[in-house]
Amino acid sequence: MDTAQQKTSYNNSSDCKPDYVRLASEIKTWGRELGFQDVRIGNANTDMSEAEAGMFAWLEDENHGEMDYMAKHGTKRSRPAELVPGTQRVISVRMNYYPPNAAESWAVINQGDKAFISRYALGRDYHKVLRSRMQKLADKIQQAIGSFNYRVFSDSAPVMEVEWAQKSGLGWRGKHTLLLSRQAGSYFFLGEIYTDLLLPVDEPVGTKGSFCGSCTKCIDICPTQAIVAPFKVDARRCISYLTIELKSSIPESLRPLIGNRIYGCDDCQLVCPWNKFSHLTGESDFHVRHGLDDVTLVDLFRWNQQEFETRLAGSPIRRIGYQQWLRNIAVGLGNAPFSDTVIAALQSRLNDPSEMVREHVQWALEQQHTKKETE
């Protein structure tokens, strides 16, 4: 079938408008063919007043820390048409990311000389992977019906992605604030396509905490007690924020609680009962690269800036920059069991050009010396 015939086949004979029911079904099929495990459609005009009020209250309490961009766009986060004029629907997608053959997470976390990196970051940068696939999905729609208005997002703009994923039926918000799925747990990425197409919408499968019951495992396990209430995270205490988003010094009171988590934290997901239903990713881009699933802190601390830039090319970790990378590892080394090797590694960077790195190295050395004295 040529393009003209294909476009015509999506039109109703009576009014020449697209057959949106059929198109929605095809979009979901195309999405799965492109590697998304689920594709759902939400109404961009649905009531978001509760989520919007919650967002502003969270910001007013300064739970966003130094993430100024969270407060920058106001209601554009909750009102799609203010961000992309004419938006009528939100196509939400999810893609599994947990890599096969990765070292068991708790085994790494409990071995203090190792470096734990959140499992979503062991492969290539998901922003690029998801955006590319969603663009291909949009291209397929355009081939079928002709030009239409849309914009794709992957954690890249003021979009309340968990809220839209919940509204569209991809899952429900867990008490740790992440999206949960009865079929897939939480080890997946989310993406969105805003569009003016009047596609039929899917029904939600639940609201906040629908299938969490009385479980509080995610709240109880948090090393820094950052989940200050069900569905509320104080980012200023969250290890993911501290190791990724925070650009200045990590508060000293929180450093010992970080342990060996040098990029992100998976604890709340690791204990979630729903993740027994999670699936390994089939995407080679998300497979482990450079042995980052099971590597010592000392080995990573030895990388010079060129090695950091080269080995982490295409990785989400590269976004934090070399100084922040060293800062995080220094904290991990301070928390590691006493070792002359650790001491030597830290001493090698006592004169680092970065004041922030030097400060964290000095703190780590003090921790190591204290441990030696108590042996």
UniProtKB/TrEMBL annotation:
Domain 4Fe-4S ferredoxin-type: residue ranges: 202-232
Residue numbers binding [4Fe-4S] cluster 1: C212, C215, C218, C272
Active site (record annotation): D155
UniProt pathway: tRNA modification; tRNA-queuosine biosynthesis
Binding residue positions for [4Fe-4S] cluster 2: C222, C238, C265, C268
Cofactor: cob(II)alamin; [4Fe-4S] cluster
Residues in the signal sequence: none
Entry protein name: Epoxyqueuosine reductase
